[in-house]
Amino acid sequence: MVRWLKIGFTLLMTAILAFSLGACGAGSSGTKKKALQNVRVAEVTRSVFYTPLYVALAKGYFKEEGLDIKLTTTWGGDKTMTALLSGGTDIALVGSETSIYVYKQQAADPVINFAQLTATDGTFLVSRKKIDHFSWNMLKGSTFLGQRKGGMPQMVGEYVLKKHDIDPHKDTKLIQNIDFANIANAYASGTGDFVQLFEPNATVMEKEGKGYIVASFGKESGEVPYTTFMAKQSYLKENETSAVKFVRALLKAGKWVRKTDPEVVAKTVQPYFKDTKTDILASSIERYRSQGSFSDDMILSKSGWSTIQEIMKEAGELGQTVPYSKLVNTTIVKKAAK
Predict the structure, then answer these.
(1) pTM of the predicted model as reported, rounded to 2 decimal places
(2) Which residues sit opposite 145 in a β-bridge?
(3) Is the dihedral of CA 48, 54, 59, 61 positive or negative?
């Protein structure tokens, strides 16, 4: 009896010890595992143009940096900037011109461009008819379905047309009163001879035989800080470490996009474009990649800043220029690249 009591006591102590060690181990790993930091990001639209962002999300690069990204689509530059200024989001992905508009309103807490996602315009000129030998002069006298006045697509579009001696307001019947989200549908329904479209809408038009891509505004305009990540100056001062981690994940994603087969990239970002076929996504990604639309180093250059303001002046949206040092911070990208 005593022998069995000893055996029972030994087994009990062994179980207690094992439980204690296990509990200690769980507590230890629990303390070592840091909670992810939430970062709210608002994108101006959902676009293949922003592929590196979706890759960073899909492949877990942000989580590797200790960040939990809450992405929302705000559908429009004005709504995106309102979300940022009101504290509804921490970081905005939107055209860099919006930071200039805010600065011109003498904001006490200016919006700072800290990383450039796209380095060219992302739109393409689509023709109703197939044109074997396209010339920009063909737009004269046509009905041109453009973009919203004051937005980057429209301003770059006008900039490119004027380079080819075309004044869209005088030489074309310019339509600008259709919401961004409905432009492709309006064209597919028969509005306009030419239209300015982002991917994948441009490729979809070709696939459906409703239009043909005849030129790239991105190639024609050259380097432009088209879409950048920006945040209020106060946020970047208080969260610089997180901003560096954020950019580091994006740099990793951009590198992966540049060296990976477009079809593989397309399958990776497919969950963000459930209504778009993989082959169309792959074609769109390759089109952007081949013309250098995805920024390699994510640094908004002084020359790019000069170009965007020249474009805004041409469009009549800017009087006095804003110094590069006022609204651009390259320190975060440089730290992330180390």
Answers:
(1) 0.88
(2) 175, 195
(3) positive
CB 305 within 8 A of CB 217: no
Q: What are the pLDDT digits (tens) for 38-60?
A: 999 999 999 999 999 999 999 99
Rg (CA), the chain: 25
Q: Using H for helix, E for strand and C for coil, what is the string for 71-102?
A: EEECCCHHHHHHHHHCCCCCEEEECCHHHHHH
Domains of the chain are 37-119+224-337 (3.40.190.10), 123-221 (3.40.190.10)
- Enter the tokens of residue 51: 């592929």
Strand partners, 192: none
Band of residue 250 on the pLDDT scale cut at 50, 70, 90 = very high
Side chain identity at residue 180, one-letter code: F
Q: Residue 300 and residue 242: Cα distance in Å, rounded?
A: 19
pLDDT at position 280: 96
For the segment 319-330, the average pLDDT, to the nearest whole number, is 97
Residue 33 has a pLDDT of 64
Q: What are the respective helix, strand and coil percentages of the chain, to the nearest 5? A: 55, 15, 30
Are the CB atoms for 204 and 213 separated by under 8 Å? no
Q: Quick one: CA dihedral 297, 321, 240, 51, positive or negative?
A: negative
Measured distance CA(204)–CA(180) in Å, rounded: 16
Q: Side chain identity at 216, as an amino acid letter?
A: S
Which strands make up the sheet holding 91-94, listed edge to edge? 67-73, 37-43, 91-94, 227-232, 111-118
Q: List b or e across 78-103, with b for residues whose CB sees 16 or more CB atoms inside 10 angstroms.
A: bebbebbbeeebbbbbbbbbbbbbbb
- In the block, tokens 């940022």 appear at 84
Closest CA to 38 of 73, 1, 76, 69: 69
Pairwise CA distance, residues 80 & 281, whole Å: 25
Is the C-alpha dihedral spanning 145, 149, 152, 158 positive or negative?
positive
Please give the order of strands across the beta sheet that includes 212-216.
173-175, 143-145, 194-198, 123-127, 212-216
List phi, psi (to 5°) of 71. -95, 130
What SS3 state is found at 161?
helix
